[in-house]
Every structure is written in structure tokens, then in C-alpha cells.
Amino acid sequence: IPLSRTVRCFCIKIDDRPIKHRAIGKLEIIPASQSCPRVEIIATMKRTEEKRCLNPESEAIKSLVKSVSKKRSKRA
Amino acid sequence: IPLSRTVRCFCIKIDDRPIKHRAIGKLEIIPASQSCPRVEIIATMKRTEEKRCLNPESEAIKSLVKSVSKKRSKRA
Fold first, then answer.
1. Least packed by Cβ within 10 Å: which of A23, A64, B41, B53?
2. Which domains are assigned to chain A?
């Protein structure tokens, strides 16, 4: 029996609910690696500290990452 | 004496050394907030787990965030 690589992804399930820029306290991006074959994007909510796994392939999430990376937070 | 808001930023100093996509284990984006008035982008290096504060206004870092968020890691 060959040794198998253990897959250790943080996200079990993608949360597809809409997410507000202003509610995000932190965004973590974990690139694909040998321990997890897909990129993971995890948002930590500001108020509740709840963690949500976002869909890296969604256009809305791509814009979110872009907007969160900008100098000032948007009010929209 | 009025109560002053405590500024708590993670980054003290921006690390301007070039950074390789493939060497990054995690990228954290912390939006501007009441505790820190600027957006912070922190890379955790894969091998050493060293944390580096990146410049959110640099074009190279903007492309890095974009490329790290993509499904598969780039070999370049």
C-alpha cells in the first residue's frame, strides 16, 4: 500500500451567501499546495468573528478581494 | 483629557523585497478599520512561516493578490 498524501483543506463547504465588504475583519487567501489542491479564501467577519469560506472562482469574490485590498474601505 | 482611540496596526514597516508567489503559504488582507486606518497585507512564507508586510499600493502586490487568488498556483 503506497503512502497517500493527506489532504488538509480548511474549507469543507463554500458559503455562497452574499457578503458585505464592510462586515469583513480579515480575508485569508491560502494558495493551492500539496496539503490542499485548491486555493481557499476565508473571510473572518468583524462582529461575530465567524469564518466563511468564499468561492475563489466567483466574480463577486474576485471583486471583493480587489476592493478589500484597496487603501480605504468603501462605504457602498 | 479625551479618551483617544488606540491605533493597533499589525505592520510597523513595509517589506519591499520582491516576493515569490510560490513561496507564500498564506496571504492575509486586513481592511482599514477603526483600530488601524490603513489596509494591511501580510504574507506568511511557506517554509519559514516568517510574516512579511506587503505594500497594498504596489502594482506588483496587486498582481500577486490576484494571482494567489487563482485556482491553481503558477509555476512562474
1. A23
2. 26-68 (2.40.50.40)
Whether residue B69 lies within 8 A of chain A, CB to CB, comes out as yes
Q: Looking at chain B, which runs of residues are DSSP E strands?
A: 24-30, 40-45, 51-54
ipTM of the complex: 0.85
Place of cell 466567483: A58
Question: Chain B contacts of A56, Cβ < 8 Å?
Answer: 69-71
Rounded-to-integer distance, Cα A23 and Cα A29, Å: 17
CA-to-CA distance for A29 and B61, rounded, in angstroms? 14
Contacts of A66 in chain B (CB under 8 A): 65-66
Nearest to B69 by CA among B36, B41, B35: B41
Kindly state the cell numbers that stand for A71: 487603501
Number of A/B CB contacts below 8 angstroms equals: 82
pLDDT in tens, B21-66: 999 999 999 999 888 999 999 999 999 999 999 999 999 999 999 9
